[in-house]
Amino acid sequence: MHRRLLLPMVAISALAFFFGWFIATGRWSELFANENNSFTSEQSDGKQLPKPDPAFQGKIGETYKDSTPSFPLPLKAPKGAPNVLLILLDDVGFGMCSTFGGPVPTPAMEKLANNGLKYTRFHTTALCSPTRAALLAGRNHHSCGTGVIIEMGTGYPGYTGILPKSTALVSQVLRDNGYATGMFGKWHNTPEPDISPAGPFDRWPTGLGFDYFYGFNQGETHQYYPTIYRNTTWVPQPKSPEQGYHFSIDMTDEAIGWIRNVRAADPDKPWFNYFSTSGVHAPHHAPKEWRDKFVGKFDYGWDKQRELIHAKQLEMGIIPKGTLLTPRHKSIPSWEEQPADAKKVYTRLMENYAAYMAFTDFQVGRLLDSLEASGELENTLVMYIVGDNGASAEGGLEGTFSEIASLMGIQLGLPSLIKKLDEIGGPLSEPHVPVGWAWAMNAPFKWTKQVASHFGGTRNPMVVSWQKGIKAKGETRTQFHHVIDVVPTILEACKIPEPKFVNGIEQKPIEGVSMVYTFEDAQAKGHRTTQYFELATNRAIYHNGWVACSQYGLPWETAGRGEGFVNAPWELYNIEEDFSQAKDLAAAMPEKLKELKDQFLVEIKKYNVLPLDPRFSERMDPSMRAAGPPKTSWTYFGNNVWLPEPIGPQLFPRPHSLTAELTIPKGGAEGVIACVGGQSCGWSLYIKGGKPVFHYSFFEIADITITGSDAIPEGKIVLKTEFTPEGSKELGGTMKMFVNGKMTAESKIKRSTFRHGLEPFEIGRDSITPVSPDYKSPFPFTGTIDKVTFALTK
């Protein structure tokens, strides 16, 4: 029988058997007993997500003529539920933006504040990933397994770097209650080993409740040459810096386009947009026309700048009358003791930093203006959080032309900055301000990012606006709140219950408290009475208007902090009377200090904070997160491999070999065989001019090109390199190159490192910026790469 006839006949026979069985067993009546048959459970009350399928509301008769269909209705958000726009800036100090008394004009933020509320006692965790996890989950960062950034997970419950499935994010809660959900910009909450084409993808944004993601997955990216993902796939940037490209513009365009497309498809569906800007995390990149706006604006230096901010904050009522300006710590140099050349460099770095902040606020303004123009803004709950932590001191005491070098513990020094002064903020730079400017931007508080013990690290302002839902305009709110309070605020405003089960998994209770009670009542008594803070043993406890805290280590010294935290002194502040933590009462009130320290122990045991661990960059060792013994060899096939560097072969500074089995076509081949990194730091093996070439660059410290003496033959060949460390503290060594077993080059590499910046490991091309100045990206290999094997050697 013809196959096209056979399939329908089988289906008919099966249907006949089904009905025949009911008739033969006397159960025909059961099939039609209920005119409103329900094949699924009744609608959920919202405590279980996803919601079960709706009950069938039609009627089933013997035939379609006496039956009534009823399509399942689409999932709908509560009637009148607002859109939610959650804006998060990065590494912005309390005293940076003009909205809160700072020197950098932020007109979009000010306009929003004039139509909403300013929160001056809002707090974060003092670091990127922890704040972001707590923000979206509504639980403390250790409860979310994110006690430090995800690259530093140590395997304890509070430090896995893996968001537990028992702490569902607000994105999933809103999506499963009828919202469209989109995320744009910086994520930094996916375990580093999962950021690969193999996934798993359940802890990417699209696996955690976001319908759409456009941004970068790790802690930072180059603004002119970013590593961008659309959903779970790497995509190249749409145009070059010469054509006006900057990631902040790009992500804003994408966010505006996404909202417009959601509304075009459904005029009534509310949306949740998590707009997580790169600004102003290093590298600090601002277009030249924005940098030019700030020339000469900071010539008086960081000490005077703090005084000016403090005075403006008092004048505006941002801080209470009588609030003291905390003094400069002895570890931070004064402005006056800096030489003239240094002042010139530091001023230029600050001008660029300020320009980046102003430029970022401008992009936020574009997004808000688009909502106003389309009529969406009126019923949009906007929460504009001014930083995921305080301003960053990770640029070191002198600042840097390359913040990646600084994070590796390498200070390139003033000569490097002086030589490249006019490039600061442009595509060839990766700059970061010196500690003094970061400290200034946190006025009136002590300390900076990473220091969770003091408000310089944890107090970030916030603006909330909801034209349709908040009557109060242009007012200030002073209740003590924390980033974990954002989720319950959103849920209450949207009239959506906290789920108890998500995907069948029982949820940890949300640990935040809603701030909706503050919307119309400036004098309402604060609902948050206790909050702990901890990051790399910098720790504090807020309880009923008091703060006890202990600071340990310097945030610009990221390694070798030792175990002295055990005996680090504690401080005590009555922050109801001392807004800036300027009057330490520990010696005068030992019993009160003991009470708070005891409360701190209660809180950290409750929220997975133990064990306390002072290590910072030491936790970057990938072996801490490896399952089983560490890999010693890696094999790849073909001309099209693209992986984040931590997922690729871990070679330098260890002894290793690279063996490439190639097919060279008639007439020869050229292009990149394998590479990692980009224009400031990386390595590349390629063929050019018929000869093999290996290039290694390490910022300005090492820049070596090794060219083979013999031409590459046609046909099947084996190209091999071998690196032998010399055992020096600079991690240098000898590189040899072989073609078909014959050595064709040998040279020294002065300095190497285990990480090479922000760009990926690739085989067959160099996609973003060229590792070697000898070629232009992507410089694809024109032969065939049969196999490439990397192996660690003894």
UniProtKB/TrEMBL annotation:
GO molecular function: hydrolase activity; metal ion binding
Pfam families on file: Sulfatase
Keyword Zinc: no
Domain called Sulfatase N-terminal: residue spans: 82-493
InterPro entries in alphabetical order: Alkaline_phosphatase_core_sf, ConA-like_dom_sf, Sulfatase, Sulfatase_CS, Sulfatase_N
Entry keyword set: Calcium, Hydrolase, Metal-binding
Keyword Hydrolase among UniProt keywords: yes
Signal peptide segment: none
Superkingdom of the source species: Bacteria
Family named by the database record: Belongs to the sulfatase family.
Protein name according to UniProt: Arylsulfatase
Species in which this protein is naturally found: Telmatocola sphagniphila
